[in-house]
Specification:
Layout: E1 2-3, H1 5-9, H2 16-27, E2 34-38, H3 41-44, H4 46-51, H5 53-68, E3 72-77, H6 89-99, E4 103-109, H7 118-131, E5 134-139, H8 154-164, E6 175-180, E7 185-188, E8 194-196, E9 201-206, E10 210-218, H9 227-235, H10 237-264
Parallel strand pairs: 1-2, 2-3, 3-4, 4-5, 5-6
Antiparallel strand pairs: 6-7, 8-9, 9-10
Helix pairs in contact: 2-5, 7-8
Length: 265
């Protein structure tokens, strides 16, 4: 169960009473085994954690209750660059988090021109590790309107993972993932069924979500090397749809071949 960041550090639900009430109600639901409090507070408002003692005491009480019930409480934060980590306030906030025994993980979005370089990503991993935050995910940017200039290609993410993996301990190395459009969930970026770098189309399967369905992720048009392909994306809807259909057909063939080979073994 995810408790959104807006309700953690701002709005009407930031009182200690409301915080405990929400946490206890969720923990009392039998099938809820894990609570995840999501917040950017550790980078944008760490003084909330260091100064609001009632708020932290509330979180501590939720953590203690969860342990008694055999359940798990964690905090997920969102830091994209090492410069977001304050040398003073973030360290102090994390000391408090660690004192009450909360696991803190970080989710990063790969951003064009911001953190899409191996050295920058390694600096972030090291900075997170120093304050006790576990690097958890590095996401490809979602395909949402107005974000095309910030997104990067799948190929750039794969190359970034290749350059950074092995530089530090495995538990301080994030998983590089694609959060699939259409409800496919998070998949390891390199686990695609098909990827055409020319068209920028990658196709994934997610058997536990829907075994018969494929999920398509498309690179930003500006990252494509072929100008003709860029024109197709911008100007030719029919050709664009045909490219996607061909990619899904190739993915289906690859998936069948992979399953057949596996079963033969």
């Amino acid at each position: 169960m995810i408790i959104d960041g807006h309700y953690n550090l701002c709005g009407e639900v930031n009182s200690s009473f409301s915080y405990i009430r929400i946490g206890e109600k969720l923990l009392n639901i039998d099938h809820v085994r894990r609570l995840r409090f999501a917040t950017k507070g550790l980078s944008v408002l760490p003084m909330k954690i260091t100064s609001d003692h009632l708020w932290m005491e509330s979180l501590a009480k939720i953590v203690i209750k969860a342990r008694k019930l055999g359940k798990h409480v964690c905090v997920h934060t969102h830091i994209n660059h090492a410069n977001e980590i304050s040398s003073d306030f973030t360290y102090q906030a994390m000391e408090i988090m660690q004192d009450i025994g909360v696991v803190v993980r970080n989710q990063t979005v790969l951003l064009n021109g911001v953190n899409d370089h191996p050295n920058i990503m390694l600096d972030l991993q090291e900075a997170l590790g120093e304050v006790g935050i576990q690097p958890y995910y590095v996401y490809l940017g979602d395909m949402i309107p107005g974000s095309e200039n910030l997104r990067t290609s799948l190929q750039s993410l794969l190359l970034l993972e290749k350059e950074t993996r092995g530089a530090t301990a495995g538990f301080l190395t994030p998983q590089y993932v694609t959060d699939l459009p259409g409800g496919g969930g998070k998949r390891l970026a390199h686990s695609y069924e098909f990827y055409d770098k020319k068209t920028g189309i990658s196709v994934y399967s997610s058997p536990r979500v829907c075994r018969e369905k494929f999920f398509v992720y498309c690179d930003p048009v500006h990252t494509l090397q072929c100008e003709e392909t860029q024109k197709v994306w911008h100007q030719c809807p029919e050709s664009r749809n045909r490219m996607v259909e061909d990619a899904c057909a190739a993915a289906a063939a690859a998936a069948v071949s992979a399953r057949s080979s596996t079963f033969q073994l």
